[in-house]
Write a structure and sequence with these properties.
One of its GO terms (molecular function) is serine-type exopeptidase activity. With 114 residues, this protein is of the alpha+beta class. It has helices at residues 11-16, 22-29, 79-108, and strands at 33-38, 56-61. It has a two-stranded parallel ribbon.
């Protein structure tokens, strides 16, 4: 005899393996994470849609869907997609520049950001 069971996954428990919410966990130890969402994706409600910290950030658009910003560039890309990609690139470029500045300062004996 088979019995049907309905399950509703708790996204935070699946991802984190516990009951703490993702904001408090990532806010404690994470950095340089960019969550990209398109709100046309039905699973976006389970995504990170607000910045958790200065370096754990959410970028989203009303028009996009899952992974669309990761697709190859096309001249026919809509303006909102180009703008989202540009924003993501600027965020990552800033993180890289910040890292390089710290790396450079440790080589010269100066401490940046401490």
């Amino acid at each position: 005899m088979h019995r049907q069971v309905r399950l509703c996954p708790c996204v935070n428990q699946v991802v984190l393996g516990g009951s703490e919410d993702i904001k408090s966990v990532l806010g404690k130890f994470a950095s340089n994470i960019l969550f990209s969402n398109g709100l046309r994706d039905p699973y976006s409600v389970g995504g990170v849609l607000q910045d958790i910290s200065d370096t754990v950030v959410a970028v989203y658009t009303n028009e996009g869907a899952h992974g669309l910003d990761l697709s190859s560039f096309s001249p026919s890309d809509p303006h909102w997609l180009v703008a989202q990609r540009d924003k993501e690139i600027k965020i990552v470029q800033f993180w890289i520049a910040e890292y390089n500045a710290r790396l450079s300062s440790t080589k010269t004996g100066n401490r940046v950001g401490s």
